[in-house]
Design brief:
- This protein has a single domain, classed as NAD(P)-binding Rossmann-like Domain (Rossmann fold, 3-Layer(aba) Sandwich), CATH 3.40.50.
- Strand 1, helix 1 and strand 2 form a beta-alpha-beta unit.
- The relative contact order is 0.15.
- The chain is of the alpha/beta class.
Length: 250
């Protein structure tokens, strides 16, 4: 049994999908958990209700998670309430549901995807690194798109590929403090963000996955729990593939 008793964890995008599953698992393992979310306050309160069955103080924060101010505020509040940060899960992100070739990709979508997926990651990671205790854990949610590209979603793939490089860079920088920095790279995950492609092609998607099914949010949260635990203390700079075998990277 993984125990995170006494650990202080933060999860961005924690009101639904992968983030909500991560928040619940971390709380079940004994951690104090704070979640940040852009919207969907009812969902966030549901997560908070679930995790308050466990020990700890829990809070939520609404705002534009791509901004410096929102990320600094989120981490500052954790320091005030928890006394510090031991685990940071950067999960907040955006996948555009409509595919567009680069020749038709407009400036507004490019900037929104980059701001949400890259700026938000940077501001959150920077704030967390400043507040994190030595021996802490930092985990980002990347994507198979960042490893092999994704036609029609070059903006998303580029942001997730940059996240992988960012993860490796931070792992080297923070190693002297015994802080591990890793990422998970999910493939298709059963969340509302991908309802549109699932509605017209779920069977074809599942047929291309060796394990024959789309991942649940819990399938991604479990490996994140491992990376946040003492069991992963000598794992850093790694991209953990959680995709049912759809993308095999050495």
């Amino acid at each position: 049994m993984i125990s995170l008793k006494g650990k202080r964890a933060l999860v961005t995008g924690g009101s639904r999908g992968i983030g909500a599953a991560v928040a619940r698992l971390l709380a079940q393992a004994g951690a104090d958990v704070g979640i940040a979310y852009r919207s969907r306050s009812a969902d966030a309160e549901s997560v908070l209700f679930d995790i308050t069955n466990h020990k700890g103080i829990y809070f939520s924060h609404m705002g534009d998670l791509s901004t410096k101010a929102a990320n600094d505020s989120f981490v500052d509040k954790a320091v005030q309430l928890f006394g510090g940060v031991d685990i940071y899960v950067g999960n907040s992100g955006f996948w555009p549901p409509d595919p567009l070739p680069v020749s038709m990709l407009d400036d507004e979508r490019w900037r929104f995807t980059m701001a949400t997926n890259l700026d938000g990651m940077f501001y959150g990671a920077r704030a967390a690194a400043r507040a994190m205790s030595d021996g802490g854990r930092m985990i980002f949610v990347s994507s198979t798109a960042g490893q092999r590209g994704e036609a029609g979603h070059a903006d998303y793939a580029a942001s997730k590929g940059a996240m992988i490089a960012f993860t490796k860079s931070m792992a080297v920088e923070l190693g002297s403090r015994q802080i591990t920095v890793n990422a998970v790279a999910p493939g298709w995950v059963d969340t509302e963000a991908v309802e549109k492609p699932f509605a017209v092609g779920r069977q074809q998607i599942e047929a291309a996955i060796p394990l024959g099914r789309v991942a649940s949010p819990l399938d991604i949260a479990g490996p994140i729990l491992f990376l946040a635990s003492p069991l992963a203390r000598h794992v850093t700079g790694e991209i953990l593939n959680v995709n049912g075998g759809s993308v095999l990277c050495g």
